[in-house]
Every structure is written in structure tokens, then in C-alpha cells.
Amino acid sequence: MENAQRHRPAEGPDNPDARPGESGTALELLVHGVGGTTPETMLDDPRTVRITGDGIAAVFRRADDADAERRPAGRREGPVPEAYVWCNLTSGNGTRALWLLLLPFMVVNIAHWMRPTARGRRRTVRLYGLLVRLAGLSLTVLLVAAACEVALDLAAWQCAGTHACAERHSWLGFLSPEVSDGGWWSPPGRRLALAAVVPTALTGLLWLLSLRTWSAYESQQPMTQDREPEEDGGPTALGRPGFWYGRRLVARLRAAHTAAGLLTVAAAVGSAAARYDREPGGPGVLGVLGVLLEAALAAGAGAVVWVVCRRGRSERRVDSGLDRRLVRWLPLAALVLLALTVVYAGWERPGWRSAGRLPGDATFGALALAQGLLVIVLAGVAHILHRTDPDRRAAMRGLAGPAVAMLACALGGVMSGGVSQRVSDWLDGTGTSMPGPPVLLTWQASVIPLLLVLLLVLCGWLARRAWRIAREERAAVEREYAGETGDPGRTRRIASVRAMAALTDRGPRILAVTSTATLLLGAGALVGALATDRTPGEAARGSYAVVHGAAETAEALGSWLIGLGFILFVTWGRRAYKDASARRTIGILWDVGTFWPRAAHPFAPPCYAERAVPDLTWRIATWTRTTGGRLVISGHSQGSVLAAAAAWQLPPSARRRVALLTYGSPLERLYGRWFPAHFGPDALAFLHREVDCWRNLYRRTDPIGGPMRLPGDRGPDVDRPALRDPLAYGRTEAHPLPAPILGHSDYQADPAFVEERRRLLARLRAAEVPAPRPTGERGGPAA
Q1: Positions of the region Disordered (predicted)?
Q2: Who contacts 61 (Cβ-Cβ below 8 Å, separation ≥6)?
Q3: Which of 2, 44, 379, 566 is spaced 20 to 30 Å from 101 by Cα?
Q4: Cα–Cα distance between 112 and 514 in angstroms, integer?
């Protein structure tokens, strides 16, 4: 392991003393998948050296191959293996599990990239991106509003203003007008001003986390490419020069979302004081100040929305500019307004007492209504885009993006309602001294048991579907292993694994049912809260006993389920960053989500591909240029997605000098179906035409990888027929012990892997290799 961490210069492409093009060495650049691995495992050698890179992402070789470019190619069989290890981009210490708390932000960011393919609909595409960005902004406001609900309303306003509650929680005693005998902090406005530290600190933490990751990820410069004006990556935006460089947009969105969070805190602090000042006989001067502050907050909110709506991503060029004045002054202006509001709320108001709830019902109701309308309009826009260029393989007929945006909003609402309810129950032990959280949050928590019942029904449907598929697969197994199937148990195991792998293709139906039910239940919760202005249990009081009992049970059970789920979520997330096996199990969704740049939400977890794709592009382009050698990009699982993205980013001259070998690849099965605008059939067909040659391996037992399904008669050019898994049904001379069912792992153990790699290298050998260019030329390889 010590050798793996030692950086030793190689007498190869990174050494200026080496003579390029001397040996015609062939290189296999290995890119691992979800969960990562070690360079020793990838290269099958305990002695490895780092060729280039740092402790986060680097390229490794076997120690014996460090100077392979200097030695004659005839001394070795096969290509020189080289491993790109990027697992530290998505894993690290346990504190990074806190990113899981930002799951709603990540999910809404995924929805941005799920738009359908569209031609000649530039304005409609922009409208789609705008709607998703507005949904992301509403999630930021919802998160900060939930923090305000907990700190300002439940703790400072309700509990500290109630004698019984303040006595039970001595740490709130100095805020209570009765327990502290009218101390300086006891007036309601000052209690709210002090409690505002919590949501303000949360907003500052999000800003700081986004700023740090922005400096580490979005600031990675892509290659300077000499392109013709029409060279923009073909039918996918993944090949555009500025796709993996979202520095300017993320900075703008970070400023807008930070300002939105601060303005939300200011509105929560000042609303109660302004409402009191507007009462008959209230302070005249303070009433005028309250109106002015509310007008200023409304103007600030308008400025935030304008910034979010004004600009999307710039992909056709590398946009190195920064809106420095906007990025600096917008959050600062919001912070100044918050400070003025704190001073205004803390002003002495004789006779002011806290009673009831803060005016939060209207805020959460307006957010829920706005999010529902945004999702509905987004669905209409997605439907229009899908009709312009229908793709039969697209998930949910192009409506996957709106469905995922709905789930993001539901996650935000459920987390807000659950945490508020749990804090309320903790503060109010008797359940009688405090009004509790806003009614809408209680209704939202109460729908969780219904959703769980629906999910159980869907799981039952999936189990029945898997049983039927397994029964059909038994006949297929017997045909594939003709003359060997003498063990019914072995046949059932193989068929069951294939059936479970096939359930991946049922994902769109599950998402469609879940998102539709979530939208309907959310609408029902909003209507119930507005119509009754009481919690579900109180609203059902006086009705049939079974109805009242069900309402109270759903209210209590939903609250506890959310609290338990929140704890399990953080626990599993921390385990995933420390345990490699757990990381592989639950890391699929996470790696898919963080593959995409932050285009809709700046507080989402950072995009590792904005580091990995430029790394691979630089390595491939510079190695092929300086050596004139043959290169095979060998990508497994998520590594195949990175390999394809890097191939799209290569200049056309370099793109046509490399071969692509993918195995266990989700390029079409997951990315092509869920992200049709970027990985659809036209995009994959373009990649097939542009790279010199491409082969793809998959198994029917693999739940992630699948064929590329290129349109027309080009499919067999890329897809090899499904590999046998297991390699042997029973004991044979070649496999005296039972062969394992490999599924998604260990594709290199199959003889087909070596065979396809050899064929790719042979085809590259037959191709005309341009003469290498001098290493001192600027601007990278010519297009």
C-alpha cells in the first residue's frame, strides 16, 4: 500500500526526456465503477505507482510498467494497464454523510437533466430549466422555513412563552417572561431575534459548504479545444466545451439561494412584530418601519427570483466570467435586511405577549401550492418536448423529470413536517401546553403511513412479477445450458437472479405510481389543512370512532416514522462512507445523482464528474498525442459513463484514435431511459460513429448493465450477445468447483473480455495513426 501512495515520475508521457512515438505502446485505461476499489485490485499487482494526479483522483500503473513507453512493445503481451481511481471524489470521512441531508436538493437537480429530447424547441427547453430552478429555490426556502419553525416558533415563541413548557426545559428559562421574572431576553421580539441564530447559521453553513465544493469541483478547467464552430458534441450537450464547467451559474445560484434563506429568516423574525404593530393602538412609528421592512423584504425576494430566472447554463463555450458584484452584494444586502429586522423586532413593545403560533401556516401552504403548480406546469412542458421528438425508450414518456421533481418536493415537505412534529412532541411533554407546529406540516406527516402502504403494495407486485419472470427464465436456462441442467435448485437460483435483475426495467412504473400518489396525497393534505385549520386528529373528532382513531394513529405514526427514518438515513449514510460493501449497495442512486453538474440547486452535493471527466480527457488526449500509441478506454458500470463522457469531450481527431470497451454499463438501460436528452439513441449512435471502435459486454443477471440498443442495424456492431453467467452450470474440468453467479461484478474474469479487448487493439493497429505532435504546443491536440 505504501507504493500505491508514492508518486514516482515515469519515463513516459509525463517525462520530457522520453521520446514520443518510439515504441507504439498500447494502453488500456481502466475506469472503475460505483463504490470504487484500490489500484492494486484494478491492476492485479501489489506494487503500483502513481503516474499523475493527487490524493483525490489519480492514474496508477504497475511498478514494472512505469516506463513502458521507453521499452519495446514486443517484450510484453497485451496492452499496458493503467487505472484511473476516482473513488475519493464520492467517499471520504464520515462527516460527508451529512450530504445525505441535502437529498431533496440532489433529487431536484437530477430532474433538471431528465428532460426529453427536443429539436428546435430552445425556448421550451429554457422554460423547463427555469421551472426546475424555481422548484429548487422553493426547497431552499422550505428548509430554512422548517428551521425557523423549530427554533423561532416552537422553541422561542411557544415553549419559552408558556410557563409549563419553559419550566420543563431549564435551558429556555432565561427567555421566559414568567420564569426569568421579565429578563432582558423575555420580550417576544428579542426571543425571536436570538432564536434566529439557528436558521441563519444553517444558511451560512450551506453557503460555506457550497463555496468550498465550488472551489474544488466547479473550478476544474476543461481542455482548450480547437473546434470548428459546428463541433458541439453532436446530438448531446455532453460534448460541448462548457458542459463540465458550471462555475458561473453555481456562483449566481449560490448567491440567490443564500439571500433567499436569509430573507426567509428575516420574514419569520419580523412578521409577528409587524402584525402586532398593525393592531389598533399599536406603535405608530414602528408600524411605519414594519411596512417599510416588509416592502424591502418583498423587493429582495423579487430580486432573488429575477436572478434565478435570468440565466441558465452556458455550455457552448467555457464561460470563465463571474458576476462578482451580484455574488457579493446580493447575500450581503439580504444579511443587512436581516440585521435591520432583528433590531426592529427586538424593540421594546410594552404589553406584547406571545400566544398561539407564529404566522407560519400561510408560508408552508403557499410553498406547497407553488411546488404543486410548478410540477404540473413542468409536466406539461415535458410532454410538449417529448411530442416533438418521441423516444419509445424514454422513461414515463418524458415525464420522469416532473415525477422526480415531485418526489424532491415531497421529501422536503415530509422532512420538514416530521422534524417539526418530533421537536414539538419533545418540547411539549403533556401535549396540552403548546399549539404545536403548523397544521399543514401535521397533515403532511399523516400521509406517510398511506404512502408506506402503497409502497408495500408495489413491493408485492414486484415480488409477483419477479416470480413470473423466474418461472419463464427456467426454460431459458435449460436451453442455454442444454444437456447440463440436472440440478433443479441450481436452475432456480440462476433464473431467480435473472428475474431480480430484470426488475430494474420496472422502475419507471414504480416512479409513476409513487409520484402520482404523492401529488394527490399532498393536495389532499393541503385542502384538509386549509379547510379545517386543525390537525387530522382534531378534525376527525366527533366523527365515527374508527375514523377518529385512524386519523390520530396516522398523525402519531407518521411523525414517529419520519423521525426514525431521519435517524436511519444519517446512520446508513455514515456507514456507506466507511464501509465499501454498504457503499456499493446504496451508492448507485447517489453516484447517478452526483454525476450531474449543479444546474438547478447550488446546495446539492458536488458533481464529481466535473473533476473526473477533465482528468480522463486530459490523460487520453495527451497520451495519444505524445506517443502515437493505441488506447482502449475500459469502463465498468459508472466508469463506462465517465469514459463515454470523456470520449465526447475529446477533440474529433483524438476521438477517432481510441477504442471504447464497456461492461456492466448503465449507459442505455439507466441513463438512456432516464436522461434521453443526453444519452438517448441519437447520442449513443453518434458516439459509435465518432470513436474508432466500441464493444459492450453485459449479462442477463446484471441489474445495472445492459445492451446499448443502437437504432437500425448498428446494434450488433457494439453489443456482444449476453455473456453466460455462470460460466459453467455444474462442475467441469475447467471449473471443478461450482462457478459463481457474478451478476454485475468481475467481468474481466470472462474469456470474452480478453477476446474483445484483443480485437479492439487489432483494429486500432490497422488504423492509420497520425504522427505525434510536439509536446510544447499550446492549446492541446488539434481538432
Answers
A1: 1-24, 220-239
A2: 10, 43, 48, 49, 51, 68, 80, 81, 82, 83
A3: 379
A4: 19
Secondary structure class of 288 (helix, strand, coil): helix
- What is the model's pTM? 0.88
The residues, ordered by sequence, that sit 6+ positions from 341 with a Cβ below 8 Å of its Cβ are 266, 267, 269, 270, 293, 297
Strands 630-636 and 26-31 come out as parallel
Q: Find the domain containing 166 and state its range.
A: 133-219+246-419
For cell 460493501, name the residue.
581
CB contact burial 740-777 (16+ within 10 A = b; e otherwise): ebbbbbebbebebbeebbeebbeebeeeeeeebeeeee
Residues 182 and 161: beta-carbon distance below 8 Å = no
- Phi, then psi, of 28 in degrees rounded to 5: -115, 110
d(CA 131, CA 366): 17
CA distance 562 to 431: 19
Task: List, for residues 648-665, the tens digit of each pLDDT value.
Answer: 999 888 888 899 999 999
pLDDT in tens, 78-109: 789 999 999 888 765 455 556 667 889 999 99
Average pLDDT for 32-39: 82
Look at residue 119 and tell me if it is in a domain: no
What's 45's DSSP letter? -
- Whether 117 maps to a domain, the answer reads no
Domain termination site, one of 400, 419, 438: 419
Number of structural domains found in the chain: 3
- The conformation of residue 278, written as its DSSP 8-state character, comes to T
The 10 Å Cβ neighbour count of residue 78 is 11
CB under 8 Å to 282, separation ≥6 — which residues? 276
